[in-house]
Prior knowledge:
The protein is of the alpha/beta class. It folds into 2 domains: 2-99, Double Stranded RNA Binding Domain; 127-180, 2-Layer Sandwich (SHC Adaptor Protein). It contains 3 helices and 8 strands, in the order βαβββαβαβββ. Helix 1 packs parallel to helix 2. The longest helix is centred in the middle third of the chain and has 28 residues, at 72-99. The radius of gyration is 30 Å and the shape is elongated.
Amino acid sequence: MEIKFNFKSFDPSEHLKNYAASRFGKLEKHLRNPENASVRINLEVEKFRQMAEVVLDADSIHLSTQEETNDMYSTIDVALDKIEKQLKKVRDKQKEKRRSTPDQFAPSPVSGAETAPESEAPAVVQTDMFEPKPMDVEEAVTRLQKSDYDFLVFFNAGTNRVNVVYTRKNGDFGLIDPGI
């Protein structure tokens, strides 16, 4: 991992450089390809303020943080803690994304339908039979608004196909036209 320092308004001691390099070198354990990673550390002093800006570029990740305290060593420590926290969060999201299974995208049961116990295979517990009435989309939306249901199946008189109009979470309406 390449670590670059930039010092502004002060001359750093060799101990400070070694301290920061050893502390930020610990980021390698969180990276998949540490040899391709680079960390840019900008350290600055203004009167009594000790500031650090850290930018990490690695594995298509770009993270940055800024920190300011009265002591440069504590500024480096706090900045490292922040960038580690960000890096762990990104890695956890990537791991979760890789672990996701197709089961997450399985359809959920229809509202109002009873669900079977988890130990048994799902079963159809209720069947409604009806003949969709021919109407246009506007009439279907009006009927859906007047009903207590979240969706309405109807025969679209304009396309001569069965369609579904449903209520979206934001209050608008959606139309499903299978095109068959």
